[in-house]
């Protein structure tokens, strides 16, 4: 029997056969209409009405066939009948009924003043035809779906969100016969929707989600709501992961192909979605006033922060943006991206090393920037711990070159992108960034250029971030390596960090160190465990976690302010001003020039010792340079 059905569904019926079936349905509907109308009053049917039945049949079927051919209702594939097909049938049947009524009216006035077809029959026939044509198609579709994907073999799905997106998601699952999923329930926070039925599935509140998963053995929960808070996403995800249930996300409508959602577009929720915070409210007018019509230069433009800063700046219509970086391939990729997205002449890329004075002098002379965002830096802690001279050369000398040239060329603002690792540094990288902070802060005291520092922690998805590393390790089957079971980090998305850099850069008057509210710190082992669960794996069974020990210079936890520092609030709740001790420029400049000269010696101990002299709070951790602290 199954083979018969399989053979039947393997071939589409000829179009003429669909038209023939529809004609048969119309003939049956007309007969049913007479039966319904006169069944209870057998003597009420006049001889004339009986004699007119063949004429009635010809008129009705003639008009129906013509309307079906004109509207091409027979060309649709019945097994994939959609709401559009049902709407088309409804319109065609109603228009056909109107045509039948008009013919009936014409015959009434041109004949013996009697209706060939009783008006009641026309109405009943229209209702019967609509019901039978639409329900027959839906019945065939249901039978087809059941044959292809028996209910017993389908995976049960719960959709979070009983709004328009939730309905579209369910219809997507119902439409795609290749999908073996069945929606068993909707979950929504709106109490007004509780207990109602939507597309054949009942709506429940979020507190019932765990019970629904267990009772229905649900294997997938699909989040259809777009603007769901990270806290709510975490709540739903935790419930699902605790019940070994996958979580999928419906992408924004702008990413739907040709305006239609398909199952393949549903993506597994990722850890970045769960670490996001509420959207930042920017002072768009303030930023626009500062950037619109200005020439912007961004160093380190091919990096994760620099490139996103460029994208954010482009929204505010600058006169031009110059993108500088010494990494050729990433800069080329950025050039291709901007070429596709922005108008010609609105930006320019330049291959340049911030440590090369002559090259940067040429760049400032040629580009004449009004605002400089300095994001160029070496940032990987273990690598810089083994190469202190390079850390000083790029992070200190590179910053000094750009800052000095900004003063020499009357740049209005210089915004320096720093790091939380500059606070009570325990490594070379953090100390080099702190020295750079000290230099530009002291330089700004006696110059028109306003120097502003922004300080924040780790950004999600940046080059070398722990999250991409964990993803690669999970894809390879593990192990997932963590340096210490107690290590914690602050996280912020790249767009969020760059938006705050823009806001802080615009509000700065000069000399400030702006500290960003990074939210709550995240325990890295909890992050790894959640990523493993999101991948559908089990820790200890499918993949294991290994502790490798702290790397050279690594902290257990990061700080945003030094112990003796305090903060002042700003108009933006997520931006604070750090009050740090001040330095005299002449003394700082002399000390920094001395340490830069040490690059030629390649004496790491001597270089790091000088760094510790400049930054007394710099105490090495898990590093060969701890010996210098003991001295």
Main traits of this protein?
nine-stranded mixed beta sheet; Rossmann fold; seven-stranded mixed beta sheet; alpha/beta; 631 residues
Provide a compact summary of the structure:
This protein is α/β, with parallel strands linked by helices. Helices cover 48% and strands 14% of the residues.
Q: Can you characterise this structure?
A:
With 631 residues, the chain is an alpha/beta fold. Strand 9 (320-325), helix 12 (328-341) and strand 10 form a beta-alpha-beta unit. A nine-stranded mixed beta sheet has the order 10-9-8-11-12-13-18-22-21, sandwiched between helices. A seven-stranded mixed beta sheet has the order 3-4-2-1-5-6-7, sandwiched between helices. The chain folds into three domains: 2-148, no CATH class; 151-269, NAD(P)-binding Rossmann-like Domain (Rossmann fold, 3-Layer(aba) Sandwich); 285-614, Rossmann fold. 37% of the residues are buried. The chain has 22 helices and 22 strands.
What integer is the average pLDDT? Answer: 82
Terminus-to-terminus distance: 89 Å
CATH superfamily of the largest domain, by name, is: NAD(P)-binding Rossmann-like Domain
> Do you know the CATH topology of the largest domain?
Rossmann fold
- Provide the gyration radius in Å: 36 Å
Based on the structure given, which CATH architecture of the largest domain is correct?
A: 3-Layer(aba) Sandwich
> Strand pairing plus helix content: what structural class?
alpha/beta
Question: Which band does the percent of strand residues land in?
Answer: 5-15%
Low-confidence stretches: 4-11
Task: Indicate the overall shape.
Answer: elongated
Number of E-state strands: 22
Largest sheet: 9 strands, mixed
Oligomer: single chain
CATH class of the largest domain: Alpha Beta
* Approximate helicity band: 40-55%
How many domains make up the coordinates? 3
The neighbouring-strand order within the major sheet is: 10-9-8-11-12-13-18-22-21
Tally of contiguous helical segments: 22
């Amino acid at each position: 029997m199954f083979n018969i059905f399989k053979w039947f569904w393997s071939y589409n019926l000829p179009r003429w056969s669909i038209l023939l079936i529809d004609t048969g349905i119309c003939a049956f509907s007309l007969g049913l209409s007479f039966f319904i109308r006169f069944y209870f009053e057998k003597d009420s049917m006049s001889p004339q009405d009986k004699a007119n039945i063949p004429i009635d049949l010809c008129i009705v079927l003639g008009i129906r066939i013509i309307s079906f051919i004109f509207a091409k209702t027979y060309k649709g594939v019945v097994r994939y009948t959609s709401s559009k097909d049902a709407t088309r049938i409804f319109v065609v049947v109603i228009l056909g009924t109107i045509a039948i009524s008009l013919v009936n009216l014409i015959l009434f006035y041109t004949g013996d003043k009697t209706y060939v077809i009783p008006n009641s029959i026309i109405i009943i026939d229209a209702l019967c035809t609509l019901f039978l044509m639409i329900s027959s198609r839906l019945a065939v579709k249901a039978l087809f779906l059941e044959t292809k994907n028996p209910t017993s073999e389908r995976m049960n799905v719960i959709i979070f969100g009983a709004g328009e997106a939730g309905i579209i998601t369910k219809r997507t699952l119902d439409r795609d016969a290749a999908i073996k999923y069945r929606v068993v329930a909707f979950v929504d926070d709106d109490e007004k929707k509780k207990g109602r039925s939507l597309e054949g599935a009942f709506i429940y509140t979020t507190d019932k989600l765990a019970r629904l998963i267990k009772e229905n053995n649900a294997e997938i929960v699909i989040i259809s709501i777009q603007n769901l808070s990270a806290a709510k996403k975490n709540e739903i995800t935790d419930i699902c992961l605790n019940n070994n249930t996958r979580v999928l996300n419906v992408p924004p409508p702008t990413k739907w192909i040709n305006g239609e959602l398909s199952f393949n577009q549903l993506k597994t929720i990722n850890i970045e979605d769960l670490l996001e915070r509420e959207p930042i409210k920017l002072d768009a007018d303030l930023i626009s006033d500062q950037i619109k019509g200005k020439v912007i230069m961004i160093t380190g433009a091919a990096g994760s922060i620099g490139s996103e800063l460029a994208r954010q700046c482009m929204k505010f219509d600058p006169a031009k943006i110059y993108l500088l970086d010494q990494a050729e391939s990433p800069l080329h990729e950025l050039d291709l991206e901007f070429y596709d997205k922005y108008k010609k002449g609105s930006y320019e890329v330049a291959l340049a090393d911030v440590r090369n004075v002559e090259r940067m002098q040429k760049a400032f002379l040629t580009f004449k920037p009004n605002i400089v965002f300095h994001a160029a830096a070496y940032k990987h802690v273990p690598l810089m711990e083994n190469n202190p001279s390079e850390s000083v050369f790029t992070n200190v000398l590179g910053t000094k070159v750009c800052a000095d040239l900004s003063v020499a060329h009357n740049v209005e603002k210089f915004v320096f992108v720093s790091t939380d690792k500059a606070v009570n540094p325990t490594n070379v990288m953090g100390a080099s960034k702190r020295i750079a902070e000290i230099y530009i802060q002291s330089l700004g005291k006696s110059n028109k250029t306003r120097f502003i520092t922004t300080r924040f922690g780790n950004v999600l998805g940046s080059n070398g971030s722990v999250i991409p590393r964990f993803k690669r390790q999970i894809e390879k089957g593990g192990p997932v390596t963590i340096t210490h079971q107690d290590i914690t980090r602050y996280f912020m998305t790249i767009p969020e960090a760059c938006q705050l850099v823009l806001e802080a850069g615009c509000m700065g008057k000069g000399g400030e160190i702006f500290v960003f509210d990074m939210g709550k710190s995240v325990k890295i082992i909890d992050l790894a465990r959640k990523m493993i669960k999101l991948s559908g794996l089990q820790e200890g069974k499918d993949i294991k976690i290994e502790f490798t020990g702290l790397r050279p210079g690594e902290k257990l936890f990061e700080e945003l302010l030094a112990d003796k520092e305090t903060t002042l609030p700003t108009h933006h709740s997520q931006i604070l001003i750090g009050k740090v001790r001040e330095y005299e420029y002449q003394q700082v400049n002399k000390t920094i020039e001395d340490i830069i000269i040490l690059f030629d010696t390649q004496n790491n101990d001597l270089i790091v010792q000088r760094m510790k002299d400049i930054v007394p709070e710099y105490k090495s951790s898990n590093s060969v340079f701890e010996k210098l602290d003991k001295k």
